[in-house]
Description:
By secondary structure, this protein is an alpha+beta fold. The chain contains one helix and five strands; from the N terminus they run E-H-E-E-E-E. The longest helix is centred in the first third of the chain and has 19 residues, at about 10-25. It is globular.
Amino acid sequence: MDLAAPTDEDALVALLDEVIYLLDTECAVPLAVHVEPGPNSVRVQLHLAAVDGIELTGAVPKAVTLHDLHVTGGPDGWCCGVTVDV
Length: 86
């Protein structure tokens, strides 16, 4: 799938929104994620598993907030922070 994402922050939020959507609508969670960046989007391939075969802990996520969202990166990798509402 292609997700519109002109910035790294937009890519992170779009991907997490998609994961929450799949959990809610398909009862599935990603086991592996492959991301290829593009100029104004990211191409994402999710390998999913049904939640009925997974032990869940904690509250089910409902949405990603933009409060304190940050993505930083460099030659040694990247780091991000995001708040997920439950």
